[in-house]
Design a protein that fits this description.
This protein is mainly alpha-helical and 394 residues long. Helix content is 71%, strand content 1%.
């Protein structure tokens, strides 16, 4: 895909094919990466490693911005070739990485489970630690409700079986709040261009927003770590901060507060644009501190082994579709409404997510899931591994 873009030229059919290939590849990796990380990580590090993926994304964007700030000598063709080289190197590294031990366990391949765990934990295959983890993993994966030979799993099962439809609905809901709760990828959605006339070049503004996003990812890793308060607090802090930031921007777009015909970004009153800039930067931090990671984490945890790939793929597809709607419609909606209705809507979405999450006992992000194996989480019910019992929603 990357090679096809410069070879065909900016507006050629080959370039369109290249863009389609790179887009499909990014969509696939966005679903596969958190699933693979969750399946290979220990239960203590799972949350942090999924959050690290979001941090790596922010660092990649910052690298791209840094190249643009260094100078204009790097043209699009050179960047495309660099993307192709990186993709090949990354593919080679992935090819040398061990397969998910849970994938081996789901196929009753004990040797593969031992080999994968040993490679991931940097331990000998014959060590007691590897043997203990492999035994527990093989046992827990076997507890997943099997599909009968005469009734194999299909995508339709997500809509006919409650223990699959509930996690799918929860994943869709969290992704909807993630995407429709504000400009979650500020550097990519063009907000930097709205602010650039008063606060530097577009790339400089994007660097500020993305840096804030990166620090938010670091905060999320702390929330999900051993010493952190867990995912529920992370999501509460994230939603509360995002709600305040959205509503602060909405207030600056209210004619009663900042005079007639207030606008968003460049062209706004001096006081208003400063408040908008600070609130948008704060939003980037708060969004990344919880809402950017936890929907992915809940998605990969919620499904049994045999349905995880398809379930996370459906949720990722919904996420990208919502992102497309937001990106394509944001500027036109702001132009038509002045931004007040748009940012009020963002604030209402995050406030609704906050009100749904605040009561204890909700199951969108169980605090206990931070210390549970994947097989203990996905059915939202308690699993007694010692007794060999698996309680799942019928």
């Amino acid at each position: 895909g990357w090679l096809a873009i410069p070879l065909g030229g900016a507006d050629s059919a080959l370039a369109l094919v290249g863009r389609a290939l790179t887009g499909a590849s990014v969509g696939m990796s966005s679903a596969v990466t958190p699933a693979l990380v969750a399946e290979t990580a220990t239960k203590a590090s799972r949350g942090q490693l999924v959050a690290f993926g979001q941090l790596a994304f922010s660092v990649g964007v910052l690298t791209q911005i840094a190249v643009a700030l260094i100078g204009t000598w790097v043209d699009y063709g050179a960047l495309a070739v660099a993307g192709a080289v990186y993709s090949m190197v990354y593919a080679a590294m992935v090819g040398m990485a061990p397969e998910s031990p849970r994938w081996f366990a789901s196929r009753d391949n004990s040797a593969g489970v031992h080999r994968s765990i040993a490679a991931l934990r940097a331990l000998p295959e014959t060590s007691a630690e590897v043997e203990e983890e492999a035994k527990k993993m093989m046992h827990s994966v076997r507890l997943t409700p099997p599909t009968r030979e005469d009734q194999r799993f299909s995508v339709l099962n997500f809509f006919t079986q409650r223990h699959l439809s509930q996690p799918l609905l929860a994943g869709f809901t969290l992704m909807a709040v993630q995407q429709l709760g504000g400009l979650c990828s500020l550097a990519m959605h063009g907000l930097n261009y709205s602010m650039s006339r008063t606060h530097g070049s577009p790339d400089e503004v994007a660097a500020v927003f993305t840096t804030s996003q990166a620090f938010g990812c670091v905060a999320c890793m702390w929330f999900l770590g051993d010493s952190g308060p867990g995912r529920r607090i992370a999501l509460l802090v994230s939603l509360a901060g995002a709600t305040v930031a959205n509503l602060v921007i909405a207030i600056t777009l209210n004619p009663v507060v900042f005079g007639a015909n207030p606008v968003f970004g460049s062209g706004a009153a001096d006081g208003a644009v400063v408040v908008q800039y600070v609130a948008a930067t704060a939003f980037a931090w708060f969004h990344a501190a919880g809402l950017g990671t936890i929907p992915w984490l809940v998605a990969v945890e919620s499904f049994p082994q045999y349905a995880r790939g398809a379930g996370v793929g459906l949720i990722a597809g919904a996420r990208w579709y919502l992102a497309l709607c937001l990106r394509s419609g944001f500027h036109s909606l702001v132009a038509q409404t002045g931004g007040l209705a748009v940012f009020t809507f963002f604030g209402v979405v995050t406030a609704a997510g906050l009100s749904a999450l605040a009561p204890r006992g909700q199951k969108l992000a169980s605090p206990a899931a931070d210390r549970m194996e994947l097989e203990e989480v996905h059915a939202w019910e308690e699993v007694d591994l010692a007794a060999g019992k698996y309680a799942y929603l019928p």
